[in-house]
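The authors assume throughout that readers already know how a fold can be written as discrete tokens. Each protein is reduced to its one-letter sequence and a matching series of backbone shape codes. I therefore recommend that a typical entry be quoted early in the introduction. For illustration, here is how one protein appears when written out as sequence plus structure tokens:
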Amino acid sequence: MRCPLRRLVLGLVLVVTGAAGVLGPASGASAHAEVRETSPAPRSVVGSITTIDMIFWSEVVSGTLTVSDLEGEVAGGVGEPDGAWMLRFALDRTVIEPGTYRVDVAYVSADGDDNLRSWTVEVAAGAAEAAPLTPIAGTPIEQEGTSTVTLAATAALFVCTAALVVLVLRRARQRLAALPSEVPTP
């Protein structure tokens, strides 16, 4: 016969693990530097590319960048941190020839992990220039704020988890009550 206490403990471990798995990724920050915003933005059309700005959800240490067309590398640059959350890449050459360019950025997050991000930008004659990003005061999460949907989802998850714990405890108590009160002796 299986021990009801063992099932109760297993149920609680599953509930806590599930809640941690759902709530853990809910925050905007993570161990890796996730990109929040870039300028120029992916798939945008600009008049030229002189700098590329990237804002992250978490701290980033450094980065290097290449801009390529179909024939190979056109320009490059080293990212200089502008605050803990932003890298600004000044290209070694301004890209003005019309065409589609691939931007490849290799960056190192504060935890030491290497990351790679790629996207395309089109340069077209007469198009507006990309606006530089403004460095963030405080953390990106403080700037972004917590949405009502996030709060409601977290509250709903908490209520469901609490209800599941109550049901598991009731079931365990019922099973314990159904067991014989005396243990037969051989």
